[in-house]
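Shift notes (night). Ran P/Homo B domain-containing protein while the centrifuge was going.
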Amino acid sequence: MRFISCFLCMLYVSTMYAEVIYTNIWALHLNCTPEQINKIAKKHGFHNLGKVLWFAQQSGRSRKRRHSFTVPTDPFFNQQWYLSEAFDQNVVAAWARGYTGKGVVVSILDDGLDTSHPDIAENYDPQASYDMNDNDPNPDTQYTLTRPKRHGTRCAGVVAAVANNGVCGVGVAYQAKIGGVRMLDGQVTDLIEAMSLNLNQQHIDIYSSSWGPEDLGTNLEGPNTLAQEAFIRGITNGRGGLGSIYVWASGNGGASFDNCNCDGYTNSIYTLSVGSTTERGTLPFYSEPCSAILTTTYSGGSFHHRSIVTTDLHQSCTSDHTGTSASAPLAAGIIALALEANPTLNWRDVQHLVVRASRPVDLRTHDWRTNGVGRRVSHYYGYGLLDAGRLVELASKWKAVKPKRKCTIDLITRAMWNVTACHGTRNWIRSLEHIQARLTLTYSRRGDLSITLISPKKTISNLLTTRPYDKMSTGFSDWTFMSTHCWDEDPCGYWVLRIENNGDSTNRGVLLKFHLELHGTDERMAGRRMERAVIQQCAVGNSDGSCEGRQQHQPYPEFILNKNRNSTCDNK
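Came back to this:
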């Protein structure tokens, strides 16, 4: 046997001595003339590699992968079906890569936290905690018999319950640090919300919120002045300028036919809105749709569906946590795994990665559509079930997205317009992220309206669906609807706004203002999608597939304020 180096040789001998198992390989260091070595080697039947200055028989040595993984031993782990390899959330796959949330800090903005719970205490982080209701550093839950405040403790356990400690189950990011902000157990003010959203923003990475306006199908409410400013400060200054990550439950108003675009927290571009699916991939009864939902994680459904296992009050455990209140902290924990894989991700990077790591798999609903860059998207599920294994894989090699650009188009009552995405300016956008449509609209019965936005690539965003319990006659006053359905599309070309009355023909209204804001980047993000997809090009395009300087085929204009779908107003 001959090697490149003349200083190594193998002798085929098998030996066992004491507890050491030796192989049949010897290493030798040789330094003499080739003739001498040939003579010795030939005599003993060896291969000539040179004079022996040093030799050693090679013993077998134990070596393990640094990312080796052992299934958690917690007593409730076998009930945590949503973490198992049999389900498409692929959390175990992320753990097997060595990601468990180490070095990442998550704070639960809620009604308090049982900081002494044996499945939380080891991961509890006082620097990620505060009692905003009583203005002190202790966020501990205030126990009452009539109104037990268990919500925050349950959400915290979903994220970071300690592994392998013989207690309850395990959190998605079981080595992340977890804190709690007690801010819902009392009168909630704009100031309390703002302080909670900006608490210790250089220390906390992810803020998880499973709350919002009441899910009655009648409300139209969002953050006030201070909370709005807090979101902006968070994404601008948080995490050393990378931006705080705000994960938000999309809402539980499905039984009331609510739409989460009427919730100004869920439909903010600064929050990452999370929907729910059952273990069978069906829609839970509480799911409400909107075009702002980005992704989905598992949760419970009706009585015949399993729910989420987590920590509970009085140092106990529960297997009954459900709703989008369970889905949001699940997503927060998965994102914590991604931040461990790549701590340099900014808040927009995280949203880009979530879009790419979410998959329709077997999620069942009637409204799956393919958008202009070939991705399947739903108003109930966003881009699908969040795949933790894929998210950490993509995160580990992700290149930061270019700075955000915003292109603003002011319109009055036009229902169709040609957008060149601020072509030729510093705000020129080649790839969309969020779309915001701000409307001022009077209407005699607000709940009868549906509003649809159609992109140049024919992607349909249902900005508003009918809400039968909403009988308000106030309409919308500078209300912002949001869509993520056109992610990575080129915005240039003709857009269509469609407003439709689905109620009585006597309903009347006037569109007073329409303001479109396109958010994105000048990079062609579809070029680094890391997934197979069909890229739909412009109807009339350039040789490179772009539509810069070109017009697309003009789509039909629709601006409907009459129950008769064939009766349209003049496009003036």
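The longest strand covers residues 431-443. Confidence is low (pLDDT under 50) at residues 1-19, 531-572.
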